[in-house]
From TrEMBL:
NCBIfam families named in the record: HAD-SF-IA-v1 (TIGR01549), HAD-SF-IA-v3 (TIGR01509)
InterPro entries cross-referenced by the UniProt entry: HAD-like_sf, HAD-SF_hydro_IA, HAD_2, HAD_sf
Species per Swiss-Prot/TrEMBL record: Candidatus Brocadia sinica JPN1
Protein name: Phosphoglycolate phosphatase
Length: 203
């Protein structure tokens, strides 16, 4: 039975809009994921890299746009009385900007300040505790392999939102969707499974 859903933010609820190429140019190196780069750098370089990252994140948060179907999907989640959480490698400050701008509310939020970031399972274990839901009954929804790796490592079901320019072949998410609105169909799938299971017990 599905009791809660954990959502990634950038690229999942919002359209991806951080200019990573410009960010790397300012840092002065091809660094890949800035958080990972910062963690393996000297304290001074770590501070500099994170300051640059936070500036770009703040700009992206202010200019953020929701993916089509997000509001409809979140309303459906609430109607089904499923708990919902937000899990992101972004800063809490940029998360708050996005939520205020789009009038969104998540009772449970984990940002990079709270615990070891994705793809480690730590943030889902933390959310599982806060939500009082075992990971067996959670669904992790994201648009990148780190989201799926994180969910699988923690024992949740996983759903990958695919973009045409990003096709990850090494992953095997439980569900693949082309629109965030399709989370509604996933919820209905779990409802049908539960109905079938309980129906079978009564025969």
């Amino acid at each position: 039975m599905l009791r809660g859903i954990i959502f990634d933010m950038d690229g999942t609820l919002t359209k991806p809009n951080v200019d990573f190429a410009a960010l790397e140019r300012e840092i002065g190196a091809k660094v890949g994921f800035i958080i990972d780069y910062a963690e393996r750098s000297s304290p001074e370089e770590r501070k500099r890299a994170l300051e640059i990252l936070e500036r770009y994140e703040a700009q992206a948060a202010m200019e953020s746009e929701l993916n089509e179907g997000v509001l409809e999907m979140l309303e459906f989640v609430s109607k089904k009385q499923l708990k919902k959480a937000l899990l992101t490698r972004n800063s809490r400050k940029s998360v708050n900007t996005v939520l205020r701008k789009h009038n969104l509310h998540f009772e449970f939020i984990v940002s990079r300040e709270d615990t070891k970031p994705k793809p480690a399972p730590d943030p889902i274990f933390l959310l599982s505790k806060w939500m009082d839901i075992h990971t067996d009954h959670l669904l992790m929804v994201g648009d990148y392999k780190y989201d799926i790796m994180c969910g699988k490592a923690a024992g949740t079901k996983t759903a990958l939102l695919r973009y045409a320019e990003y096709v990850e072949t090494e992953l095997s998410p439980d569900f693949e969707i082309d629109s965030i609105r399709e989370v509604i169909h996933i919820i209905e799938h779990f409802e049908q499974m539960s109905t079938d299971l309980h129906g079978g017990r009564n025969e």
